[in-house]
Amino acid sequence: MVSSDKESLPPGYILHDGFPSVPEYVHLRSAAGLSPKTPSQAAAIPTGSWYFHIADMAVHPDHQKRGLGDAVLKALLAKIKQDAPADGEPYVSLLADGPGRPLYVKNGFVESAPESLGMILK
Ligand SMILES: CC(C)(COP(=O)(O)OP(=O)(O)OC[C@H]1O[C@@H](n2cnc3c(N)ncnc32)[C@H](O)[C@@H]1OP(=O)(O)O)[C@@H](O)C(=O)NCCC(=O)NCCS
């Protein structure tokens, strides 16, 4: 446990360095109104979560439009399915630049807005 910078927290609160227990995690999500997660999904948090982010899809221009991007994305999604806890769906996200959008849509991705809006730190 690491106590936090006391100046930045309201009185009575301490930041713990680490992960919540499985029951704490499941309860907190539910209490905060987030979608429910199973105990196996909660247990996977410290070792590799049910949350996956796909970053940097790129095929060299000399090799584009041959189905390589599609093959790589399908292989990544298969690996994610294989590695994720068996109960409950993995949460897979990405930020889609223009050229990648048709590929992502073809593979089942939908826009997260307006429910969830992608944000980056600038
Ligand atoms: C996005 C990117 C990764 C796609 O890679 P890719 O290998 O060209 O993708 P694919 O070949 O699987 O699919 C791309 C298009 O080629 C078409 N295609 C696939 N095989 C083909 C073939 N044999 N002949 C002709 N066209 C083909 C697909 O139908 C697809 O068309 P669509 O976009 O109209 O649906 C690639 O364009 C890229 O690196 N772009 C620059 C970087 C970038 O913007 N990345 C996205 C970041 S979010």
User: Are any ligands bound, and if so which?
Assistant: coenzyme A
- What is the residue-averaged pLDDT? 87
**CATH topology heading:** Aminopeptidase
Architecture, CATH level 2? Answer: 3-Layer(aba) Sandwich
Estimated radius of gyration: 19 Å
- Give the proportion of residues in helices: 25-40%
- The N- to C-terminal Cα distance equals 30 Å
Structural class: mainly alpha
Element order, helices and strands? HHEHEH
Anisotropy-based shape: elongated
Largest sheet: 2 strands, parallel
What is the count of DSSP helices, taking H or I runs of 4+ residues?
A: 4
Q: Tell me the name of the CATH class.
A: Alpha Beta
Q: What is the spatial order of strands in the main beta sheet? A: 1-2
- Proportion of residues in extended strands: under 5%
Unreliable runs: 1-6
Q: What is the count of structural domains? A: 1
Set out the fold topology.
Blueprint: H1 22-31, H2 39-43, E1 51-53, H3 68-83, E2 91-93, H4 101-106
Parallel strand pairs: 1-2
Coenzyme A is lined by residues 57-59, 64-70, 96-97, 99-100, 102-103.
Write structural notes for this entry.
The protein has 122 residues and is mainly α. The chain has a single domain (6-106), classed as Aminopeptidase (3-Layer(aba) Sandwich), CATH 3.40.630. The chain contains 4 helices and 2 strands, in the order ααβαβα. The chain has helices spanning 22-31, 39-43, 68-83, 101-106; strands at 51-53, 91-93. A two-stranded parallel sheet has the order 1-2. Helix 3 links the parallel strand 1 and strand 2 (91-93). The two termini are 30 Å apart. The model is unreliable at 1-6 (pLDDT under 50). The structure holds coenzyme A. Residues 57-59, 64-70, 96-97, 99-100, 102-103 line the site of coenzyme A. It holds the Pfam family Acetyltransf_7. This is N-acetyltransferase domain-containing protein. One of its GO terms (biological process) is UDP-N-acetylglucosamine biosynthetic process. One of its GO terms (molecular function) is acyltransferase activity, transferring groups other than amino-acyl groups.
